[in-house]
Design brief:
Layout lengths: L1 H14 L9 H5 L22 H12 L4 E5 L7 H11 L3 E3 L4 H4 L6 E4 L6 H8 L3 E5 L14 E6 L13 E4 L2 H8 L10 H20 L11 H11 L5 E4 L3 H9 L7 E4 L9 H11 L5 E6 H6 L3 H7 L5 E6 L4 H9 L14 H7 L3 E5 L2 H13 L4 E6 L13 H4 L4 H7 L5 H12 L1
Parallel strand pairs: 1-2, 1-4, 2-3, 4-5, 5-6, 7-8, 7-9, 9-10, 10-12, 11-12
Helix pairs in contact: 4-7, 6-8, 9-10, 9-16
Bound molecules: thiamine diphosphate.
The site of thiamine diphosphate has 19 residues, from helix 10, helix 12 and helix 14.
Amino acid sequence: MPRVLEIAMQTAISGRGVAVVVLPGDVAMRDAVAQGPRLHFPQPKPNVCPSDDELTTLAKVLNNSKKTTILGGAGCAGAHKELIELAGKLKAPIVHALRGKEFIEYDNPFDVGMTGLLGFSSGYRAMMNCDVLLMIGTDFPYQQFFPKDATIVQIDVRGEQLGRRTKVDYGFVGDTKTTLRALLPRLDQNEFDEHLKTSLEHYRKARQGLDELATDGGGRTPIHPQYLARVLDELAAKDAIFSCDVGTPTIWAARYLTMNGKRRLLGSFTHGSMANALPQAIGAQVSHPGRQVISLSGDGGLAMLLGDLLTLRQLQVPVKLIVFKNDSLAFVELEMKAAGIVDFGTGLDNPNFAKMAEAAGLLGLTAETPEQVVPMISRALKHEGPALVEVLVSRQELSMPPTITLEQVKGFSLFMLRTVLSGRGDELIDLAKVNLLR
Ligand SMILES: Cc1ncc(C[n+]2csc(CCOP(=O)(O)OP(=O)(O)O)c2C)c(N)n1
């Protein structure tokens, strides 16, 4: 048992993942073996660098490009300084994948946001308009968001990741920090900043568009979920740990939570498995007792693991649970609309989560109007123990444009178009019309 357990621990640490130990009942009944720990070394941190020849090739490709875009992921953790220096030399906009957000976005004059389904146009544009795409420490999966004609260079410490998601012209095995440190002295200063300038300008406009959606809507209900996310961003501690549920909370977290190098953002960003935020928050709070931990939960996600409200009480884990109550599985509803089909089976007949929280011994609060958002969130954040705030947010929030082919709606009247789109939301119809025109 000690040997197997140690192998499991070592595998989890070095593979940066989960290990499972299966313990047969008869083994559990035997006497424990007296044995000290056999692994005495700390977590290994090797420097992994491409060979000299490979660095020469890498530098040559980058020095020959005037329009390079960097796509960075979680593998850039701990290499912020080197990444910024690299972007400065290459005059390259930096796009990030969601898992890279917390390590890349802050103090970054080259930041042009995210791409992909949850991202926004500036990230997409910067990647599509480059001559060389430099992927660093990322497993960004969506193939349709990669450029077709650009030269693609990928650096990853795990060799098996190279070329997993797109064609790769040059692949290198190395950790980000060591590789960039070795590479930087070999790079020339790119004097052409047109690509960077236009990408940054596009990002400024895209950001402005997103910020305009995060308002209190002049006090109208239902509350914009973007506004809730913005308030959380403003009121949370500078070193808060956030977790966000798979579903629309992930979109709002990606777009409205500001990272600063001290905050953390946890989610199920690789597997996309629902109901992750509460258990992740519990884990984060237990391992970081002094930190403020905030779970951005969906109503569907919370309902799946509602029993963990009792865990918060039982273990007195002071997590702040913010429920985006939109009475639906909104993300899937949107996906259905985006696919051009009528949504079905996505409504939720919700309980009063605040009262349930109260019954479980937590502080339970509700925000029904935009004016109540700041006071309720502030109260919850100041509360010493676990707290839940349910916020009644809009169900029909447009976070991705529907894709409808002309063929599908040929000869449709506006009324029929409305029916296809479930008759909800004029913005949706406007966007569909724009897509049709395209
Ligand atoms: C275990 C699991 N089941 C189903 C899905 C598909 N799925 C993704 S998001 C989502 C809806 C999430 O609903 P909710 O937590 O209420 O958040 P919302 O999108 O409404 O804000 C579903 C069903 C999934 N990702 N994981």
